[in-house]
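Hi team,

Filling in the usual template for the complex we talked about on Friday. All components are listed, including any nucleic acid strands or ligand strings, so the model treats them as one assembly.

SUBMITTER: L.P.
PURPOSE: interface mapping
COMPONENTS: two
RESIDUES: 365
SEQUENCES:
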Amino acid sequence: MSGMNYSASADDALVKAARQGELAAFEELVFRHRDQIYARAFSMTRHEEDAVDLSQEAWIKGWQRLGQFQGDSSFTTWMTRIVINLCLDHLRKQRRHRTDSIEELDEDSGGVERQMPVVTVNPTAGLERAELRKKIDGALGQLTAEHHTVLVLHEFEDMDYKTIAKTVGCSMGTVMSRLFYARRKMAALLADVRKES
Amino acid sequence: MKLQAFLDGELPAREAREILTWTQRDREASSLLAELRNTRQALAKSEPHLSLPESREFFWSKIEREIQRLEPHPVAAPPPSGFAALRRWFFPAAAVSALVIAGMIAYFQAPTAAVQTVADADAPTVETTLANSDATTYRDASEGTTLVLFSYAVDNSPVKNKKPTAIN
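RESULT (copied from the run log):
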């Protein structure tokens, strides 16, 4: 146990201490970034309990793999990649246990997104930030796992098509198709929300 | 989907110029591009802020318990320096060798050393002078005293008594 002031230390210093086996330093990292990691897990799974479990698992894996953290990216980026991979594994397992939804069949048969009417008015214009977030969250919840996953990776994680394809384990064409569908569906859902309100 | 790739900056420059020209000519393409752009912009600044629905202590206690269950954790140690390697392997090996040598010396010299030690210390010794005679000698050099104990049967009794005889 060092005389380190954990709460006043930068992430890099905490990572270094944690690599030496200081659990208290790692606890501070968990405390700082637990919401962010949980939020990513939730955005991927859309399920609160699963997101809690997966974010917890991500932290444990993070501790075990600290020796592999090279510092090429920030610690939070590194942790986010861990939780994303765990979520993708989780979603793959879930997919094996469920029948395909109509939306997926539509996507596979090709072109339902092309038949949607174009939303000509910006459905989110003039909305307060908090209200917009709430509506986006609601709309994301109505997409299938495959669609909101691609959307989250592209829009929130700033991944390009190639990186998403590699991360998810599909072709770039599939990524583009899913992203296109997800965006068009989001536009339609947000337009509906605006009409209702 | 080419429109989307254009929006996301995933097209090579030449193709991007072609798409731009197309959207300037085609109203439907222009509308679709506007819709995709609006959705992207809405998402870009609106990731929902979520908080973990568990207290810090409770969440950490679960992680800590699991980490301790999985110990020892495989955190990478820095590669050992030359001196550290020497300290890690050479010193223990030297210590073991020294112990083995000391043990061998002690083993081969033990009888002599024991006698010498006893004699030097002037300490009392007890020895059985004649193995089958039931006589035992107690010698105390510091006191200048030697006791010899004889055991023999008295009056055909099966009990053996010992009578000390002082020799000065």
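MY TAKE: Chain A has two domains: 6-96, 102-196. The mean pLDDT of chain A is 87.

Thanks, L.
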